[in-house]
Amino acid sequence: MSFRIGIGYDLHRLKKGRPLIIGGVKIPFAKGLEGHSDADVLLHAIIDAMLGAAALPDIGHFFPPSKASIQGISSRVMLARAFSEIRKKGYRIGNIDSVIIAEAPKISPYREAIRARIAKDLQMPMDAIQVKGKTNEKLDAIGCGQAIAAQAVVLLVKKG
Question: Residue 151, SS3?
């Protein structure tokens, strides 16, 4: 098969005293995402979509939260590892489509910086990456401003 599709999802609670990093970009906000790493929900969703498309284990296999050495790790480091793993299997990324679900902050002012960062990190054209922002219309933990989630779909293409 020359094409493979994977989906990814992640959600983290918002917490005061942490920086908010989404898509590898630091966003000015009163709260950040809680987690063992920098808790970048978008990169985590993209990583799981990449790994899933290549039929590799999920992000927790490569970066178990119980492992003390990953405490505070940059999700960009995790993304680089996942990218390396899919390349070992002979794949390249065709495109990425993603959604960040948050009541606040608004994603649109940071969308192009996020797309550019991901494109650079994954050595691909920016026009092959889409990032959308949505709200939960004030419903559930996301809608109440307690969490942020992300979903991603990745298309892998077999090299050669």
Answer: strand
